[in-house]
Amino acid sequence: MGGVALSRLSLFLPSFAADYSGVCSCLFDLDFLVVMNDAACCTRNYVDYDEPRWSREKVTTLCSQLRTLDVVMGDEAGTIAKIVDAARSTSPRGIAVLGSPVPAITGMDTSGMAKEVEVLTGIPSIGFATTGFATYEQGIDRACRGLLKKFCSSPANRPRACRPGEPCEGDGREHPASPAPRPRVNVLGITPLDFGTVGTEHDLTSWLQNEGFEVGACWCMGFSLEDVRQTPKADVNLVVSAGALKAATTAEALFGTPFVVGLPCAGKQAAYVAASLRQAATSGSSAYALVGSESEGAGGNAGTDGNVGAGPQRANESALIVGDWVCASSLRSALRLEGWPGKITVASLFGKRPVFAGAEDAAIACERQLVDLVRNGNFSSIIGDPLLGRIPGARASRHVRLAHPALSSNLFEAEVLRYLTTDVSKLL
């Protein structure tokens, strides 16, 4: 047991944003009373370090102030009473009850507490069994799927969205022979933990509009509960981070909405994603707009006829991209489409290996695995957070600094990549 614990010890990197911070980030814009079930430490991690918006635009956050006696005696009733009092004085649109390490160890029932709070207040409430031992993308996953199931129509009262050419059963509607001239798109998975507060959410919505799409909900920045409820009306969902992958498949199962995985980086990658969205809206089939992935598919011409880095000397180079699975894979796709000829490996400290990962991509379970990868990979360039420069062996490679707030908080805010306005071809 001691060996397992030591293998996960971080010597060079700070602790990552936890699952409860992922939930909180998703709920930030929704006028929720967010209840952190802890002694105050986890609450401080969220409000002081993980959520850059909180210092500028405070939202209602309640720390339950657990004490030793509360934990030993399992006093859930006392915590529920605090939540009900807070709800009566703040009148939120919803209530979220989150866990932290100590409640996770003692088995505190956050879902049961949320149900009781909802009965006592009449306010929609969701319990999230966060533990603080998992990373932020798992919290984003929990929050997105929880909101879908709580506030969107269920299959029992809403038929699956019919696709072009299909009959619409049971609702009396006739589907047009061709898709709407402006297909409706939801953006799933954008939070400051991956994208900072540099304006990428606005870039995305503007880009979609310019490409001829109608923008639905932008999960989870700049949206409302009304947007959440309208989510099933979309023709296609665009997944821009790994935390939203399961939410996309959930929406597909519940509402028949196809999804496209891929971040529209400036240049040919953006065109590839746009073509993939149009095709998915028409066919009803999901796709991965990621050149170089195992699941690459659908989306029109993704030719790599660019001339970036042309020359045999660049073909011998290799790059390691460390970050969120979707963001990092999209960067690789963009570099490929722009003609960069060298080997590109994607590695992620966050989340399990997705279906679209390349054959040599790496899901990093602990810092030691990252150290080994950097030392043995002989990479000419490493693209990722500035703190990765502390990893032994990293200084032998050129370091392209792209801040990842889930790792380095707001230390390097000026180095967060603005994907849709930055010429990715010049990164390497």
* Structural class by helix and strand composition: alpha/beta
Distance between the terminal alpha carbons, to the nearest Å? Answer: 42 Å
| Average pLDDT | 88
Could you state the CATH homologous superfamily of the largest domain?
Nitrogenase molybdenum iron protein domain
CATH fold assignment of the largest domain = Rossmann fold
What is the CATH C level class of the largest domain, in words?
Alpha Beta
What about the largest sheet? Answer: 5 strands, parallel
Kindly state the percentage of residues in helix: 25-40%
Please give the radius of gyration in angstroms: 22 Å
Oligomer: single chain
What is the number of E strands?
14
Strand order of the largest sheet: 6-5-7-8-9
CATH architecture of the largest domain: 3-Layer(aba) Sandwich
Count of the separate structural domains? 3
Per DSSP, the total helix count is: 17
Beta percentage is 5-15%
Shape summary: globular
Runs with pLDDT <50, length 5+?
A: 1-6, 155-161, 169-177, 303-311
Summarize the helices and strands and which ones pair or pack.
Elements: H1 2-7, H2 19-27, E1 32-36, H3 41-50, E2 61-63, H4 68-73, H5 76-90, E3 94-98, H6 101-106, H7 110-121, E4 125-128, H8 136-151, E5 184-188, H9 192-195, H10 200-210, E6 214-219, H11 225-229, E7 236-239, H12 245-255, E8 259-261, H13 268-283, E9 287-288, H14 312-315, E10 318-322, H15 325-337, E11 343-348, E12 362-363, H16 367-377, E13 381-384, E14 398-401, H17 405-408
Parallel strand pairs: 1-2, 1-3, 3-4, 5-6, 5-7, 7-8, 8-9, 10-11, 10-13, 11-12, 13-14
